[in-house]
Amino acid sequence: MSLDGWNTVLVLGGIRSGKSEFAESLVADAPAVRYVATSTAGGPEDAEWAARLAAHRARRPGSWTTEETADQPRRLADVLASAGPGETLLVDDLGGWVTVLLDPAHQPADDEATVAELAAAVRDTAARVVLVSPEVGLSLVPTTPLGRAFTDALGAANRAVADACDAVALVVAGQPVWLKPVAAPRTAEVPTRRSAAANGASGPVATAETPLPAVLTPGTSAPATAGTGAGGDWAAPTMALPMVATGLVIQAGMELPMPDEDAGGQAVDRLGTLDVPGAGFGTLERVVTFAAATQGTANPTPWTTVRALLLHGDHTGGAAAGSVPGDSSRRAEQARAGAGPLARLAAEVGATLQVVDTPSSAPMEQEPALGGAAVESALRYGWRLAEEAADASVQLLVLGACGAGTETAAAAVLAATAGAEAPAVLGRVYTADGQIDDAAWMVRCAAARDALHRTRNSPRDARDVLAELGGGDVAVATGVLLGATARRVPVLLDGPVGLAAGMISRDLAGQVRHWCLLADHGGQPAVRLAADVLGLTPLLDLRLDLGEGANALAALPLLRSVLSLAAALPVRPRLGGPDSEDEPDFTEPEPAGPGPTTTHPESGGRAG
């Protein structure tokens, strides 16, 4: 399992709340799962109950094994106690277990002692265990003695097991809420590119209250200290977000929300009815359908609150060959001061700008670009950035990056995740005066090649790719995409870092790409390939190369104009639009008579 810091979890929920599906997702990546069924099969006349059990069985992968304890409820504690440290068990559910426990066939019995034995087995088990149980304490008190006995016994069992478990989740309408989160794992003490230690000063230690990097409004500049400090803001614990802090969200196979496909289809149908003199919106029709699906309406509105995130972090070693030392820091500070293409375009379109310092990445050809613990912190930090934007009612995120060696890191990620050849997706390198630097390009290609060779026997899951090749900026970008998807905030991608993050995100949550839009490929081969794999066809072919984030902001007014026009135009008069009653019925014109019918100005009359 890819959840850290816990051994046992209790998943509570009401009827049809999705608690079983959520519990199954927690163990989905375990190599083998023992499914412990506690409910009886029911009588032959109860077809509805049989259908429920059949649906549960159909969801279980073929690699899972099933063990039933329905006839012997006291055996559940023995099953948990005898499980080994390498095993994963899913117990579904305690409601059925209590039902059997209260059955007259098992009486007289000491139910309290049996519940205590189960809780002790949960507390002491060496295996990883997920238990599912109904939450009936929120309903009315039953009117029958048997109903009251069941709710009392189940409530006592839930309390005892919850106290014994490391974590407890309540699922409401398919949405999990962590009632008892595991303590956040200790964050890595990895200095960022601009840490205080590197500057010879002792900066403040990042805490759960560490503020996010300053958000710039158009025409303002950020404090000079934004993004600095020991460990950097990216390494701050996210205790304010328990789902992230426990590690119970950022895992492979997450079930994040999807856009509203019905609204997107309805938007397409509506566009065909609009009163336009030509053929319509052409390629930009996809802007309307994307906005419709992500807004959940057939008539979407333009994005009014937009935030641009500029992720700043350098890659060292051969990946940065040909980069001007300190140039990325200069551009980041320039953006913070409200100058440069990105800040000026943000002011022009009325977007806020947030410059985010990400951890520096080690030479990928020699060692992992980022430590495993630092990857976790960077993912959570990116998620927190998206959460903060959603809480501020941001309707669209623009994701960009600046840093030495980012193109090389993206090329290596594509080689690892899409089977690409690094030289084929690595763009040309230019000197400060605009000349092509082939020698630096070859050094970058060699760095990517050596990194891939070094990791040829390493796993290729998302975290491993981020640690070995992607580095800090790609890890934070991946967290941003995941968090934005979880909060239903669309993202306008721009440049190799965002696309590399999209490639990695698909292994954590396949829903992410459906919330992403690509305005322009910028002529970059890495962006072209990643977009093709992710199914993100660029809207434009302007080959803008103003810097990551700036390209998207330059195209944003056009996208907004399309949405404004689509929202304001009426339908054609023939379809019931304005002036439909005044429009005369169409009649076939009479055939023209013989001879010319042109009125000549010279004569002022008809020729004939």
How does the major sheet shape up?
A: 7 strands, mixed
* Bulk shape: globular
Q: Tell me the number of helical segments per DSSP (H or I, 4 or more residues long).
A: 19
Mean pLDDT: 79
**Count of DSSP E strands?**
13
Write up what this structure looks like.
There is one protein chain. By secondary structure, the chain is α/β, with parallel strands linked by helices. It has helices at residues 19-26, 47-59, 75-82, 94-101, 111-124, 145-164, 242-245, 261-271, 285-295, 327-336, 340-349, 372-391, 406-418, 422-425, 438-454, 462-486, 496-505, 525-534, 550-568; strands at residues 8-13, 34-37, 65-68, 88-92, 128-134, 167-172, 175-180, 215-216, 306-312, 352-357, 396-402, 491-493, 516-518. It is built from 19 helices and 13 strands. The strands form two sheets. Strands 3-2-4-5-1-6-7 form a seven-stranded mixed beta sheet, with helices on both faces. Helix 3 runs parallel beside helix 5, helix 12 (372-391) packs parallel to helix 16 and helix 13 (406-418) packs across helix 16.
